[in-house]
Amino acid sequence: MNPRRKKRLTIVSSILLGLAVVAGLVLYALSQNIDLFYTPKEILQGKEDTELRPVIGQRLRIGGLVVPGSVKRNEDSLKVSFKLADMRMPMVFNEDDPMVTVHYDGILPDLFREGQGIVANGILTSESIIDASEVLAKHDENYMPPELADAMKEGSADKAMHGKSAYNKG
Amino acid sequence: MWKWLHPYANPEKSYHFTGKLLPWFNYLALIFLTVGLTWALLFAPPDYQQGESFRIFYLHVPASILSMGIYLGMAIAALSSLVWQLKLADASAAALAPVGAVFTAIALFTGAAWGKPMWGTWWVWDARITSELILLFLYLGVIALHNAFEDKNLAGKAAGILALVGAINLPIIHYSVEWWNTLHQGATVSKFGKPAMAAEMYWPFLICFFGFSFLVAAIASVRFRTEILARNSVRPWVKALVLAKEDK
C-alpha cells in the first residue's frame, strides 16, 4: 500500500475507533435510562447496580408476565387488575417472587392473557401498585403453527402442572 | 491479492459488467418473490398466538435485515472511496443510499402496522425502534449530502464520512433487544444457530429474503449504471453509447 493511502486508512480507522469508544461509553452511561421499562423486581428492590427505586407518584413503564390466576375483572366496567412478575424461562411462578399489581381501566390488547408478557405505562401509587393508562402486549420471538403449539403443550403438560403446583404451594 | 479486481475500477468495464448481471438479478428477484410471497402469504401456517397477522413478518424482517445490510455495503463503499479514492466506490455508495432509505422506511412502516394489532400501539420509543429511526435519518443525511455539492468528489467525501460514522449505529440496532429492555422481541432469525420458528414458516421466509435481496441488487445495479453515466457524461465511450442507441 502506498504511504498516502496508508496514512488515510490510519486516520479514518482511528477516527472510527475513537467514535466507537465514545458511543460505547455514552451508551454504557445511559444504559439503564435506555431501558423501556422497569421489571417488578426493580420496582420493589431497585435497579441491579444502583439500587435506585422509583418514587411513589412517578410515571413509569413496567414490563413483566401476567401471573396466572391473578387477573380480576370488574363485571360492570372495563376495570381490570392483575399481577406482574419478572419475565423468565421456564415460566414458573412462586408466591414470594417480587410482584406488582396493575390497575387498568380500558381495552386490553388481543394478546393479553395469563402468562403473557405485558408492558404497562402508568403511575406508581404505592410501593407495589401501578395505575396504568396504557397496557401493551409483548410477545416473544418464537413463532409456530397452532398444531405444533398444541403438541408442545401436551408434551410438556406435566412440566406445566409442576410449575402450577409450585406456584400454588408458594 | 486484489489484482483481479483492478479492471472493474474502470467505469466502462463496470458499466457493461453490471449490465450483464442486471437481467439475472431481475429474473431471480421475480422468481423468488413470486414463489416466496405466494408461499408465505397463502400457504404458510398462521402463528399459534398471532394468527394471520403474523404474515407481515415476511415483509418486515427481510426489509429490516436489508436496511442494515445495505447500510453496511454503503459504509464499506464509503471507506474504500475515502481511503483508496475509488470513484466507482463513491458512485455505488450514492446508488445504494436511496434504496436503503426506502427499505428502512418499509421496515418502520410494516413494524408500526404490525405493532398496532399485536402490541396495541403504532409506535413506542424503545431502543430497537428508535435506533432504526435514526438509521432512516442517517440515510436521509447521506442522500442530502450527496446532493448538497456541485462537485461530486466533495459531495462523495462529505457523504462518505457521515456514512462511516453512522455505521456505529448498526451494532446498536442489532444488539438493542439484548442490551436493553424493549417492547420489541428478540431476533427470530440469525446467521448462527437455529431460527426460533417452525421449519414450514422458515423456508418461505428464506425464499422471500433472497427475493428481496435480488430486488435490491437489481435496483442498485440500475442506479449504479446511471450514476456511472452521469459522472462520465463527457467521456467518448458514453457519447458512443448514446449515439449507438440513437441509431437504433
Automatic annotation (TrEMBL), chain B:
Official protein name in the record: Heme exporter protein C
UniProt keyword terms in alphabetical order: Cell inner membrane, Cell membrane, Cytochrome c-type biogenesis, Membrane, Transmembrane, Transmembrane helix, Transport
A GO cellular-component term linked to this record: plasma membrane
UniProt family annotation: Belongs to the CcmC/CycZ/HelC family.
Origin: domain of life: Bacteria
Function: Required for the export of heme to the periplasm for the biogenesis of c-type cytochromes.
Transmembrane segments: 21-44, 56-79, 91-113, 133-149, 161-181, 201-222
Membrane topology: Multi-pass membrane protein
Any Pfam family: Cytochrom_C_asm
GO molecular function: heme binding; heme transmembrane transporter activity
Organism: Thalassomonas actiniarum
InterPro entries: Cyt_c_assembly (IPR002541), Cyt_c_biogenesis_CcmC (IPR003557), Cyt_c_biogenesis_CcsA/CcmC (IPR045062)
UniProt record, GO biological process: cytochrome complex assembly
Record's subcellular location: Cell inner membrane; Membrane
Domain named Cytochrome c assembly protein: residues: 29-184
